[in-house]
Amino acid sequence: MFDALSDRFDGIFTRLRSRGKLNERDVDEVAREIRLALLEADVSVRVVKDFIARVKARAHGAEVQKSLSPAQQVIKIVHEELVTTLGGVSGKLEMSPKPPTVVMLCGLQGSGKTTATAKLARLLKGQGLGVLLVAADLQRPAAVEQLRVLGSRLDLPVWSAPDDGPKDPVAVARTSLEEAARLGKNVVIVDTAGRLHVDAELMDELRRVRDVVRPTDTLLVVDAMTGQEAVNVAAAFDEAVGLDGVVLTKIDGDARGGAALSVKEVVGKPILFVGTGEKVEDFEAFHPDRMASRILGMGDVLTLIEKAEEAFDEGAAAKAQEQLQKGQFTLEDFLDQMRQVKKMGPIGNLLRMMPGMPKELRQAEVGEGELARIEAIICSMTPTERRDPALINGSRRVRIARGSGTTTSEVNALLKQFKMVQQMMRSMAGGKRPKLKGLAGMDLSELTGGH
């Protein structure tokens, strides 16, 4: 996610910190480097021009010249202006005072619209809302079936046209409101038809669906990897049907960041949600300040904590904390904690959220296969071996390797790594109480100043 842009900023700021006091020429040189980095990231020329003008105006001013750490002050200015460019404050869905709240999703084919519909539904269901999914995309083959499958997986109802009836998206949208009332659902999410490109027929259909359901929120789903084209598409849809916000999908594959950094200033509509992976849980609210911190390599502790709170079972965390206090940490505990962490999403994404994480680790590709291999090795042990790894002699290691489809050297490596973790846990239990609630019973609040 924005790896290329993060690398450029990392290099710029590293050189900046080595200079001490800054003169106007230094500031202009940094501004020029940032300008090139943003243009290479496919950010709108107009957005780059405005951004650099704001940074230079502040960096040439008294807040930098009188600062005891000018370089750090410039970095702070860049961060603040980046937050402004990304939208300033976090947007959110408007909830109708008279249910149901209707959310209409539109976009081009291939943008991930149907998947985004299910991801948004999962997010709202997790907030205690009753959600009805509406399959009004009757143009793309299998779109209705895809939404039905996703709805079944999430245990959510899906309203669509009868299999043997007329395929009229406007009728489907109209009758969905009656179905929501019948089922007592307070949120209706309408998945509409897309096209390979913007055309008059598509826009006319969207307007007719919009006029029938009168959406509380009309969201455009765009593929972040299309860069400036995503911004152009957003402008066209806003002019045709009127948008309330944008959902950026496939942001995990966007190494540049042009769409995210341009859409708010160019289109004037906030980014409300981002898709960060292929799974239905890889979806989160968009926070400009957190995204700016990620882009500048500063981590994102608040999102990390939210993911931990969602993923970790309170009972399991309490049990882990209790065992930790006794100085006990077994391979069974290790396996349980690893499974909990996997629920939070791709490990690489989690590493990027940790402040102070070295660039090499932030960019490390920690594959699901590696975690699956560790899980297979531990599951090939007997319960007694998991509780007391000291019992695992040479013959047992051979048996475990065969059972897990790995090698004895991989089993040895895991046991060695676990022994180091176990020693660390025991030393923590013997001294100051660990503060990492959620990750093996840790309290992450200290990292955010108690917030």
Word description of this protein:
The chain is of the alpha/beta class. The chain has three domains: 3-85, SRP54, nucleotide-binding domain (Four Helix Bundle (Hemerythrin (Met), subunit A)), CATH 1.20.120; 101-297, Rossmann fold, CATH 3.40.50; 304-448, Orthogonal Bundle (434 Repressor (Amino-terminal Domain)), CATH 1.10.260. The chain has 21 helices and eight strands. It has helices at 3-17, 24-40, 45-59, 62-65, 70-85, 113-126, 143-154, 169-183, 200-213, 228-241, 258-267, 288-295, 301-311, 314-325, 331-342, 347-353, 359-362, 368-379, 383-387, 394-404, 408-430; strands at 101-106, 131-136, 158-159, 187-192, 217-223, 245-249, 271-275, 283-285. An eight-stranded mixed beta sheet has the order 3-2-4-1-5-6-7-8, sandwiched between helices. The model is unreliable at 432-451 (pLDDT under 50).
Topology of this protein?
Layout: H1 3-17, H2 24-40, H3 45-59, H4 62-65, H5 70-85, E1 101-106, H6 113-126, E2 131-136, H7 143-154, E3 158-159, H8 169-183, E4 187-192, H9 200-213, E5 217-223, H10 228-241, E6 245-249, H11 258-267, E7 271-275, E8 283-285, H12 288-295, H13 301-311, H14 314-325, H15 331-342, H16 347-353, H17 359-362, H18 368-379, H19 383-387, H20 394-404, H21 408-430
Parallel strand pairs: 1-4, 1-5, 2-3, 2-4, 5-6, 6-7
Antiparallel strand pairs: 7-8
Helix pairs in contact: 1-2, 2-3, 3-5, 5-12, 6-7, 8-9, 10-11, 15-18, 18-20, 20-21
